[in-house]
Amino acid sequence: MIRNYDGKLILPDGSEYWGCRFGAKKEDAVCELVFNTSMVGYQEIVSDPSYTGQLVVMTYPIIGNYGVTDEDYETKIPTIGGLVVREYNDIPSNFRYTKTLSEILEDYNIPAIEGVDTRKLTRAIRDEGSCKALLTGLDTPGEEALERLKAAVLPRDQVRQVSCKKRWYARTSNHRYTVVAVDCGMKLNIVRSLNQRGCNVTVVPYDTPAQVIMDMEPDGVFLSNGPGDPEDVGPVIGLVRQLRGKFPMFGICLGHQMIALAYGGRTYKLKFGHRGGNHPVKNLATGKLEITSQNHSFAVDAASLAGTGLEATHINLLDNTVEGLACKKDRVFSVQYHPESAPGPQDSGYLFDQFIHMMEEGKHHA
């Protein structure tokens, strides 16, 4: 296949990966370079706020072949930094599709490149770790590109960027529970999962004061996923400290990490993170194995949990990182992975049922 290369990806070690650009034709984009091993779900990945400012390499070779549908977004305004794929298909075959992937990327000013040797690139990230990368035109001199990379500073505190600015509501008929969800960059399928289980959900900004939430008198509090370093999200860490023990509390991904920090634990950055729908996780209470979907750069330090009141409930069988936490006394629990993951896997949906059970018990004891 003859390709007319018009763009390239440049890494800090000077290596270049040539390809053909699609989506938004931004002049330059400097982002953190990460990879995702999912075989399906590129629309959900592109629209997941946890990828804010990241350039995502898809390891599955064909992307775009089923288009994009109006019902499958995880946020209304995607904030991903960019996309790198082996082969882009611009003629979707799915009867549900309403736009092509390239059209969506162009709508939201998101650059992408195809024709790249994604196997080689993924190995480089795996061996050397996540790094800054520059997506630019083919005519950009290498030395100039490296200078831009060196000078670029990756953003921090991205939760401030993606959290909602005012509260909003997702109600369902014949609801039994009311949940306040703290939005740190929340995936919409989390809200759908709570609605399906009879919950009216009030979504609030990440910096909402604890007293405001207490005045709402919810049956439970949910802490969402989101981008960046959990230590940057001081308002939510403080919120957990004020609300723990007052309401059942459930955290996912970034919410999991912030619960650990609020209880006195520590987090650290992984070499290249966990991103994809095929991570094996062991439930320590049942011994059962769950295949999970994950998307995070940071993990909870298991050694730091001693004396915090938290216990590990799940572990990752690939690297033994902490995948779940619980404090039974305070009715608080969390997982690092995504039980609401769409299009799947769906092994972990029981965790939402566990949250419902906690809220039901709280009603009986009120």
Keywords:
366 residues; alpha/beta; ten-stranded mixed beta sheet; seven-stranded mixed barrel; 10 helices; globular
Short description:
The protein is of the alpha/beta class. It contains ten helices and 19 strands. A ten-stranded mixed β-sheet has the order 10-12-11-13-14-19-18-17-15-16, with helices on both faces.
Folded structure, characterized:
- This protein has helices at about 40-45, 100-105, 120-130, 140-150, 160, 190-195, 210-215, 235-245, 255-260, 350-365, and strands spanning about 5-10, 15-25, 30-35, 55-60, 60-65, 80-85, 85-90, 110-115, 130-135, 170, 175-185, 200-205, 220-225, 250, 265-285, 290-300, 310-315, 320-325, 330-335.
- With about 375 residues, the protein is an alpha/beta fold.
- The chain has a ten-stranded mixed beta sheet, with helices on both faces. A seven-stranded mixed β-barrel has the order 1-2-8-6-4-3-9. A two-stranded parallel ribbon has the order 5-7.
- The radius of gyration is 21 Å and the shape is globular.
- The N and C termini lie far apart (about 70 Å).
Q: Mean of the pLDDT scores? A: 95
N-end to C-end Cα span: 68 Å
Radius of gyration: 21 Å
N to C succession of SSEs: EEEHEEEEHEHEHHEEHEHEHEHEEEEEH
Number of distinct helices: 10
Which structural class do the helices and strands define?
A: alpha/beta
Strand order of the largest sheet: 10-12-11-13-14-19-18-17-15-16
Q: Level of helix content?
A: 10-25%
Beta-strand residue percentage? 25-35%
- Largest sheet data: 10 strands, mixed
Shape: globular
Which regions contain 5 or more consecutive residues with pLDDT less than 50?
none
The beta-strand count equals 19
